[in-house]
């Protein structure tokens, strides 16, 4: 495997057996880790190239007219391939074309080794967000200037392979050996490659001087045949709290001047720092609220410097009062940004040291004991996807310091496997576990307990409230950033959910497969206590008798539930799922069998759990069992707890519903898997937040760039239950952005566009497509389009792609869910590529920060109202109607205004930015409520009128910025 040929074919389609042909060959030869030769040629396929292939590759019929045929080109290519391993990205696509071409030319088919760089990258780069060649090349700084051109693709794949081989060589021997056991059934010959690397490492071992110790011992912590990344030693040292005598006698004003004043440390140590009046006003208000023991809502406009505006006063107050400060964010991106960037910058400027830790919910952390057990399960009978996931996690252990699942890029199967190996209370051995000192969750808890500042997410904050403050260290003061999401996070995490796939996976874990957890528990038990052999055998037989037909029942019931839901479901999310609100009373007539089947399933799960409990009791003795048995017993106990939870959820969702909740199902009708997601949400979250949270805490600071509607905090106060507290316990502060919106921004609202829902859908769509084309060509790309529906995004994207293909200078279209699902990658491409256009749905309406000329135009296709048929909205609207309130004015409109403000806020991110917002939804000027949207915006120039006139203002407005400023 030291001699390889990296290959890429461009083809007329995807099926060589149905006549698709090769139109370009790219090949790169690698010998002993060095590129030694390359070959590329266009191929005349002797048939027309389909338009979509031309659009993808840029290869036209004219270009291949004089090119060699496959018969003429193959001899040179085959001489290069002889004696080499065939390597390609998604190798079996290219291999099928190779084999078909070989047969058609009278050659024998290729029978050498095959390596797939997709499979290899998934195994060795488990923290990648995407395994597409273009995105891997971008992440790894591999030059790849012409995607979908065979020569460029082959060269990029060759560079990728050499990078991956280097990663493989750096892995510890024990990991290489473990991986070999998992990849034996893979389609490509990764096992052979691993064996080669293993032999190289074994040859090196005797050459090591005894005094040198183990190879790479400074990098790996090898324990119980697993290699872990050695955490930095300095991390432990930094956990000790520093003394704060030097600040306890200084006033806040003195410390503020020392830090942010004209001669302050921030001016000296942070190059990008600018003193801002609004930021200092926020700092004083935050500190005063904490000092006075009141809650504070702060709306801080873009450019205020919100993060520092709450971090500095929060840290000073916490240190002076010897208390911990909790900071909660909605997104992991901001959580990471606060931890790695903002706190680091603040630390440089403070006259005292601060320790910071992040903490997430327990289920985010890997349980090493469970993972060790999962690796010990027989490989036979395990799906290739699960083997790959186990392999990814083995590699990940050598890279991670946190054990946090958010780092991993897991497929759907992997997300289910995670449920088996995540940390949880029910199956934790605590200090009796051999992995305790290395446990990711307990290490994170230790860091949090000792830190001055703990950064969490809203989900954990809500979970801690539910658990009566048993998750986080005790705290009285917290800062909630992205606070406009608090009510939404509470809705999600105070609610309940269950999927039919989760239920089936739970039963799979309870199966009696040889080598499975239950089988091994019985074997270990009877080996330790031989007298339990007969009763254990009887119980296992009983388990099998109930559990095998139970899985079939659940499978059949899942299909029935899917059929019932899909017939009634409507599209209400931009994620492509369809939704149906339901009540148990709806299961009548033929549908009553769904309820009856659920009851039988609950009963059968109960029987299995009872048998499992009897099995556990067999091992209860005075004598301490061996660790392997204790470990399996703990896992069985955890499984029985999950079964109990599954029974309770089934009862909750399908037998006896709680009137405080709204219930619905979601299905994905376009997917092959007939999976049903069951959800329930509290109708009144504000009540759940008011008493156990806001009333109990000393001071909570809620902040965001969007907390007001028409300059009023009323909506946010109502949503969070803060209106239920005494008035003197709550303060509000609105700080405007320092930007000159009047001069920097222009809002255009065409008055001659079709109204959504009033005109025909096609007329409306045609107007949006043409309007978007007008904006994009006027701004020469540099445009982001925000949608509320993924289906509309796809339609507009496809139409624009077809119409822009003939432009002299090409445009780059980047669609969420089309070109990538990774927001960061799409934004990076958008910023770095010429004439680029970015299409996004909900996640792009906020948290996107693209300063400068790269984003000059923002198109809001439709006002972001929650679909009126969404179950949560419907349930709450009904409740409001009963209370004599107007649900549209009290809930739908404020929600949409806040989302609209977030969307518009993507455009002006810097005092030198200049840009145009185009709103294609004419309701913003034609409806009575439309002015609420406009009155909630910063003071932009706003123009409305006929589109042909308005669109002429785009290049004129953008062209006014001096070139020097635009490039700054």
The CATH superfamily of the domain at 741-966 is: P-loop containing nucleotide triphosphate hydrolases
Number of helices: 40
Q: In the CATH hierarchy, what is the architecture of the domain at 741-966 at level 2?
A: 3-Layer(aba) Sandwich
How many strand segments?
26
**Can you tell me the CATH topology of the domain at 741-966?**
Rossmann fold
Q: Which structural category do the helix and sheet elements fall into?
A: alpha/beta
CATH top level assignment of the domain at 741-966: Alpha Beta
Main sheet attributes: strand count, strand direction, barrel closure? 7 strands, parallel
Radius of gyration: 31 Å
- Terminal CA distance reads 50 Å
For the biggest β-sheet, the strand order reads 10-11-9-12-18-8-19
Strand content is 5-15%
Mean pLDDT: 89
**Could you list the spans in which at least 5 consecutive residues all have pLDDT below 50?**
209-213, 233-243, 960-968
Domain Helicase ATP-binding: 265-529
Domain Helicase C-terminal: 771-958
InterPro entries: ATP-dep_Helicase_C (IPR006555), DEAD/DEAH_box_helicase_dom (IPR011545), DinG (IPR006310), DinG/Rad3-like (IPR045028), DnaQ (IPR006054), Helic_SF1/SF2_ATP-bd_DinG/Rad3 (IPR014013), Helicase-like_DEXD_c2 (IPR006554), Helicase_ATP-bd (IPR014001)
Protein name: 3'-5' exonuclease DinG
